[in-house]
Amino acid sequence: MPDQPKIAVIGAGWAARIAHLPAYAANRITPVAIADLNADIANAEAKKHGIPQVYSDWLEMVEKERPDAVSVCVPNVYHRELVLGCLEAGAHVLCEKPLAISVAEAKEMFAAAKSAGKALMAAQNWRWNENSRAIRRIIDSGDMGEIYYGEATALRRMGIPAWGLFHYKQHSHGGAMLDVGVHMLDLAIYLMNNPAPVRVSSHMASKFGQRPEIAKQFRNAWDPAKFDVEDFAVALVHFDNGASLLLRTSWATHIDAEQFSVRIVGTEAGATTIPPMIYRNHAGIPVDEKLQVAPADWTASYTREIRHWLDVIAGKAEQLVRPEETLNVQRIIDAAYRSAEEGRDVTVEA
Predict the structure, then answer these.
(1) Are 67 and 92 contacting, i.e. CB atoms less than 8 angstroms apart?
(2) The domain containing residue 56 runs over which residues?
């Protein structure tokens, strides 16, 4: 592969505009093409980033441009078709989270990537946050002992997306769990060393999105009569090694402030990603250790993620977001939706 790989982007929405395109630019890579059904948005992004070709048909773009790799930045329901098509065309694929809307889809995608000899990675940028990287180093040192409990929290006070198609199952498949919850769930699974989930109990609700006065606060960015996804979810996950995880996520909750963090508890120490702290005993005295890391910068995490992705497709690095971790995240998500629907604990799909 040449030093400057041919990159194409499918989708010119939020993920492309805020994450992928600026991160490619920060790594001095100009995509060869971008595709989106909305020509105005696609052309605006192409002009902004100097992208030479714009398509309304992603398949035509892939067939004509023959990119080395593609960033897939479209609503969740459409990931499978695009990922499989790009892999079949011989491209590596970086796909926005969540990778799939079911375990079966995720398995199919990874099997196709293996068959094609191409990399397929879910874009989970919180792994490249400075706080996350620091906590991971401490876990790898063994200083935290046996990790037996975690908390993954992604709670917004009043943050229902005011753009896109997040609000409708036919496009997104789910709500807060798939939009923001998956970020902290993936990070927790990564920091807990990817234990195998065996049982999940969850509860989900839509308490804000279906209310006209709430939609009005967001300039009627969605139709409250058609809002059919969860804006709140909580789940308790049990793992095969005896560990457990509490997942909390929402788009709107009456709380004091937005919370995006992971807590890890081990036999020798505990940790939180925000703030970046270690909690332990020293000579029988409880001690709180503040990690001296660079201030959290989510834009920098995107830049690092894309730098890593470029190394992966160049054969210089093994992908940090491994298929087996993404599959376990998907197993938990699937089980959480099933548990909420059935109103009981459920066994996680193998």
Answers:
(1) no
(2) 7-123
Which band of pLDDT confidence, cut at 50, 70 and 90, is reported for residue 263?
very high
Contacts of 44 (CB under 8 A, 6+ apart): 12
The CA distance from 208 to 228, in Å, is 11
Global model pTM greater than 0.90: yes
Domain count, the chain: 2
CA-nearest of 335, 275, 264, 313 to 94 is 313
Q: Which amino acid is at 322?
A: R
Domain harbouring 86, CATH code: 3.40.50.720
Instruction: Give CA–CA dist 121/44, Å, rounded.
Output: 27
Same domain? For 228 and 185 the reply is yes
CA distance 270 to 260: 17
pLDDT, one tens digit per residue, over 21-31 is: 999 999 999 99
Cα 157 from Cα 145, distance rounded (Å): 34
Q: Tell which of 123, 153, 173 closes a domain.
A: 123
